[in-house]
Amino acid sequence: MFKHWKQGLASTVVIATLVMPLTATAELTDGKLKIGVLSDMSGVYKALEGPGAVVAAKMAIEDFGGSVLDQPVEVISADHQNKPDIGASTAREWIDAEEVDMITALDNSSVALSVQGLANDKKIITMNTGAGTTALTEDQCTPYGIHYVYDTHALPVGTATAMVKNGGESWFFITADYAFGHSLRDNTGAVVESLGGEVVGNVNAPLSTNDFSSYLLQAQSSGADVICLANAGQDTVNAIKQANQFQIVQSGQKLAGMLVFITDVHSMGLDIAQGLQFTTAFVWNQNDEARAWSERFFERHGAMPTMVHAGVYSAVTNYLKAVEETGTDDSDTVRAKLGEMTLNDMFVKNGSILPNGTMLHDMYLVEVKKPSESESEWDLLRVVSKIPAEQAFIPLSESKCPLVN
Amino acid sequence: MSMQVILAQALLGLNVGVFYAMLSLGLAVIFGLLNIINFAHGAMYMLGAFIALIGYSLLEQWFGISLQIGFWASLLVAPVIVGILGVLIERLMLKRLYELDHIYGLLLTFGITLILQGLFANYFNVSGTPYPGQPEALSGVVNLGFMYFPTYRLFAIVFSLVVCFATWWVIEHTKLGSRLRAGVENPDLTQAFGLNVPLMVTLTFAFGAGLAGLAGVLAAPIYSVSPLMGADLIIVVFAVVVIGGMGSIMGAILSGLALGLVEGLTKVFYPPAASTVIFFLMVLVLLFRPAGLFGKEK
Amino acid sequence: MTNRILFVLMLVAGLTAPLFAYPVFVMDLLCFALFACAFNLLLGYAGLLSFGHAAFFGGAAYITGYVTKEWGFTPLLGILAGAGFAMVLGAAFGFLAIRRQGIYFAMVTLALAQIIYFLALQMPFTGGENGLQGIPRGHLFGLIDLNNSLTMYYFVFAIFVIGFGIIYRTINSPFGEVLQAIRENESRALSLGYDVDHFKLLAFVISATLAGLAGATKAIIFQFAALTSAHWQTSGEVILMTLVGGLGTVFGPVVGAILVGALSHELSAFGSWVQVILGTIFVVCVMVFRRGIIGELQRLVSRKQG
């Protein structure tokens, strides 16, 4: 409480000093640009986004020169603890009291939906890099919400198709019991069924489950060819490790991790993870540009970037570009500009942002290397094939977003 | 539903049940003697797991001690450290509250829980850190006919059962135990017979805390080690103790095992209710048999 | 007399708070303050420790959210519906719990609250982990737009003052005197011919209703009903607030709620150290200052006067 009072005073002083020389550029509504990184800083998704996202955002700002339109760019960050109410109230305070101009990260779909809805009321752009649910760009799409890295439509396209074609016809789902898991399960099920496969069962596990054994045994006794993990982060890691302990893979069933990050593979180790196929938007050593950026990131963060970290860097950079080119931080103008830009950097090639908020870009089907193939601690993934943007994401013509159709 | 599935899930339920039994045993012993609900019991369980984790992989990094405490040593070291903490808590704090309403004991230990959880949450991920020190001898699986069961889990079940029933035997069939029981039933009279009740109380608290620490070490290789691993567990263990009958040793053990089984089987038939079924039972027991299934009406 | 001065102080502070603090945050504090006051009525004046008050706080939030969002109730009507739900729930909980004493009472309320938590997680209308999102703030009496945070603030403050007033009246009524007599010595109250169970039940229902009022209001402020509000840790938090502020004092819970709320907010950058600090304060209170902040102050004042 006291803090705000002091800040109120301070900002009055700043405004007074700014007003005096009337030459200052007046395009930014509050004299500065503030970017909020709202992420899971302590829980299941910490490794894949969390503090690394703050590092990525800071790198983007530094690489941009630390300022835009001659005004400083600041980063503010907080932990949403995977609780949508905490996420929403933090975002509300950021927008009301801290004058945040753009919010990014937002892993956890429940949090993402609540913050995107709130930001829409307040006309603030959200550039979501962490959450998966397609609802963000489908029935709950907003004019200010951008979904940047991946969604639950893009994930199964490559992975599930590959697995069904390799003979995995019957599927059993272990689903994270919230917006993301449900959305991923439904979209994956649709892909499987469209290819002639069959969904034979499903069990919902709470977010942040530490013992998957009971769910895994149910999956095992279903006799399905494929046990599909519609979860993420530490949950996926735990499930795969425990499947290994109970010798489920050894008994002939295949595990499908629908959303796997390089940090998960690193924490499981290649012995357990080898051969696992999944879909990703970014592999740190996929080309020289990505590698150069990733090594800089590694120096600061101590781990190689996930696709989400790279996505935060790219999103912040492109947002700053749009602000600079339009000369304002007005959300409508900046959002319109972002929609016109063709995005090209170390993360995305020829990307574009659709009116429903989907950032259209290629995805990759990758496979975890065998221990013998890996050349270094983080050399873990091999690209199997590229999934073209048009296939990965829902075409605008089929979108259920009210803004489009 | 095939018999095989039910057997497999029952075994997993038993796996959970032994942890309930060990924790509720400690809680019941403490309640029996001190009339205090030790809210910090879950935090002590967590502490046990963290001592094992730190002892195995962080001593050098954190304290510059080039020593590694393996799993077997942790089974001894962790309960002792947690027990010592228990002595400190009892001597320095709880002791001053005995004259007051029992609720203050609950509140004090709730505060201690917040402190312990907060401390570890600063340094460790709340979603858990894997414990790397599982002994080689216990890795692998055992073919039970109806399923492959990880050797370590089997070991944890057997080991916990031995500890639980040994504790029960000591309390019911030795001189030490009979004094303890006398202290539980009538502290004033016991004191009058010249037994050092305060010392007994302290040691009992330390023992209960040590059991929680031991359970923590056993749990570390199965579940990841997390600052919040005891937080939700403690609420369930309360329910176990209430259902078994507060202060009843055998009640705590048997209801711990039984409720683990119930929970495991609920996971098969209606998974969402698995974490709540125990509370349904608790309400029923409190309504119809307030002293618990094994407790005596006071 | 001191109470009157404190009350005026509280009114002035409440009316001017939005001038120097972020209104939404103060509204949050007010909700918790009311919640703590309601809890205090039960523990501080009737001597009953409920470990399940989050069920009323969170349960009411869901009901309010649902009726305003899906049935188009106005905010005030929605809040009343939430509080009404908490009242009914309180009557049911109370009926089952008051037959037990002390620790057992706490355990029954805890178990019942866990069942409510389960329902909040599983019932289709609550949205499970996602929570009930997008609750409209709407227009008060169909006229005053509550989307403006200042009007919202004064609406919330009015609710707080009314809730606080009810509690104050209850404590200082003959009913309140009997409650305190029961707390001091139940068997004596019984022998004086009071229907002890009846009094306890009524106290429980009033407490639950007002806890529900606080939770319902919170749902409208944040346009959100979420599992956090119904979780047992929220039941723990309200105990913490009440005890720190002063058990069995009129203003203690308000002070406790503001202190705990402000501490967790201001120190949030320090992550889990907040928990360590709160836990330490709590332990110190239990060990040394069992009367809480207001209780100790009152003692100092009365000692000086005496």
TrEMBL record, chain A:
<dbReference type="InterPro" id="IPR028081">
    <property type="entry name" value="Leu-bd"/>
</dbReference>
<dbReference type="InterPro" id="IPR051010">
    <property type="entry name" value="BCAA_transport"/>
</dbReference>
<comment type="similarity">
    <text>Belongs to the leucine-binding protein family.</text>
</comment>
<feature type="signal peptide">
    <location>
        <begin position="1"/>
        <end position="26"/>
    </location>
</feature>
<protein>
    <submittedName>
        <fullName>ABC transporter substrate-binding protein</fullName>
    </submittedName>
</protein>
<feature type="domain" description="Leucine-binding protein">
    <location>
        <begin position="33"/>
        <end position="369"/>
    </location>
</feature>
<dbReference type="Pfam" id="PF13458">
    <property type="entry name" value="Peripla_BP_6"/>
</dbReference>
<dbReference type="InterPro" id="IPR028082">
    <property type="entry name" value="Peripla_BP_I"/>
</dbReference>
<keyword id="KW-0732">Signal</keyword>
Automatic annotation (TrEMBL), chain C:
<keyword id="KW-0472">Membrane</keyword>
<feature type="transmembrane region" description="Helical">
    <location>
        <begin position="238"/>
        <end position="264"/>
    </location>
</feature>
<feature type="transmembrane region" description="Helical">
    <location>
        <begin position="152"/>
        <end position="171"/>
    </location>
</feature>
<keyword id="KW-1133">Transmembrane helix</keyword>
<feature type="transmembrane region" description="Helical">
    <location>
        <begin position="270"/>
        <end position="289"/>
    </location>
</feature>
<dbReference type="Pfam" id="PF02653">
    <property type="entry name" value="BPD_transp_2"/>
</dbReference>
<feature type="transmembrane region" description="Helical">
    <location>
        <begin position="31"/>
        <end position="64"/>
    </location>
</feature>
<keyword id="KW-0812">Transmembrane</keyword>
<dbReference type="InterPro" id="IPR001851">
    <property type="entry name" value="ABC_transp_permease"/>
</dbReference>
<protein>
    <submittedName>
        <fullName>Branched-chain amino acid ABC transporter permease</fullName>
    </submittedName>
</protein>
<feature type="transmembrane region" description="Helical">
    <location>
        <begin position="103"/>
        <end position="121"/>
    </location>
</feature>
<dbReference type="InterPro" id="IPR043428">
    <property type="entry name" value="LivM-like"/>
</dbReference>
<feature type="transmembrane region" description="Helical">
    <location>
        <begin position="201"/>
        <end position="226"/>
    </location>
</feature>
<keyword id="KW-1003">Cell membrane</keyword>
<feature type="transmembrane region" description="Helical">
    <location>
        <begin position="76"/>
        <end position="97"/>
    </location>
</feature>
